[in-house]
Amino acid sequence: MNHLLEIRNLQVELKTELGPVYPVQGADLIVRRGETLCLVGESGCGKSLTMMSVMGLLPPGSRIQADRFHLEGETLLTLDEHAYRKLRGPVIGMIFQDAMAAFNPVLRIGDQLAEPLRVHKGFSRKAAWVRAVEWLDRVGIVEPEKRARFYPHEFSGGMLQRAMIAMALITEPDLVIADEPTTALDVSVQAEILDLLRSLLSERQAGLVMITHDLGVVAEMADRVTVMYAGRTIEEASGAEFFARLSHPYSRGLMACTPNWRAGAVPVTPIPGLPPALTAVQTGCAFRFRCAEAMVICAEKPEITEVAAGHRVACWLNRKPDVLAAAVRGVDEEGAMDVDD
Ligand code: SF4
């Protein structure tokens, strides 16, 4: 079966003045039509760079490789910038976190919405303007004809976020990537924006990748969840399975540091320490220096393996006892160092 987006073992190397950096070291994810995938993890865990790779927006000199990196069954690895320009907009839409920074401050909102229709879909200036006004109406902007003539600074934060959703969806892309789309909004506007996004995408059976560190948003939105740590996918499952059986210690740590205001809820417990600097390819489990359950074997990198149908986890704790025993024996024979070394 062809997934809308399928990524297996994606590796990204960036060139910097201080030397190479490896921000993605084994990203795995799949997105199906009509589904929302929530991509979860702390800042710097490779979520955004994984999706920038899909958009073909990595800095010059970056290197990328993968076992599979396919959109609608076609590889993205061989695309050049010209081919990517044809994808961005008509096939892949992007909703950015900072709507104010995403709009050009000296162009009217309506013109900015209309532009992708003229560039990618061959609309006339007038037809594109009419469609832009229609989309402002669809995303709940009151008096859309009047507001289409406004400049970005004349919109509130919530209105700009709605306009950005309109701009990402106006070309009717198959895949939409939303990078923390509601972080800057207050809670009531956030709920409205998420509802709007969900209903607009389900109309079209498009796929949505929602990048977030907010497990409340994940619980609300996710058909599937992928958790990344230190550039690698360490857990992936359906939304229901993920919350029913949090299997990776890092996923449990994220849950433990999510505020819960219900009476009698357990107090928030932060994960100690920080994610590693990704200036080298990680050996072993990258979480072992922060993991309360780390063992000697964790100095070896655990494969990501299936623990239930569609639920995959990269942690030695989730390996079958005989596999774990054999791996531990192997480490003992090699005289592996303690994990804190
Ligand atoms: Fe913790 Fe080891 Fe599992 Fe890594 S592999 S999360 S260190 S138990």
Q: How does this structure look, described?
A:
This protein has a domain at 5-235: P-loop containing nucleotide triphosphate hydrolases (Rossmann fold). Helix content is 34%, strand content 22%. The chain contains 12 helices and 13 strands. The chain has helices at residues 47-55, 81-87, 99-102, 109-121, 125-138, 144-147, 157-169, 187-204, 215-221, 239-244, 249-256, 321-334, and strands at residues 5-16, 19-31, 36-40, 63-65, 68-71, 74-75, 92-95, 175-179, 207-212, 224-229, 232-238, 305-308, 311-313. An 8-stranded mixed sheet has the order 7-8-9-3-10-11-13-12, with helices on both faces. Strands 1, 2, 4, 5 and 6 form a 5-stranded antiparallel sheet that branches. Strand 1 (5-16) and strand 2 form a beta hairpin. The longest helix has 18 residues, at 187-204. It starts with a strand and ends in a 7-residue tail after the last helix. It binds iron/sulfur cluster. Residues 248-249, 285, 287-288, 291, 293-295, 298, 302, 315-317 line the site of iron/sulfur cluster. Iron/sulfur cluster binds next to loops.
CATH architectural name of the domain at 5-235: 3-Layer(aba) Sandwich
CATH superfamily of the domain at 5-235: P-loop containing nucleotide triphosphate hydrolases
CATH class of the domain at 5-235: Alpha Beta
Q: Provide the residue-averaged pLDDT.
A: 89
Which series of helices and strands comes N to C? EEEHEEEHEHHHHHEHEHEEHHEEH
Strand neighbour order, sheet with most strands: 7-8-9-3-10-11-13-12
What does the largest sheet look like? 8 strands, mixed
Helical coverage, percent range: 25-40%
Judged by helices, strands and strand pairing, the structural class is alpha/beta
Number of strands: 13
Task: Work out the helix count.
Answer: 12
What small-molecule ligands were found? iron/sulfur cluster
Beta strand %: 15-25%
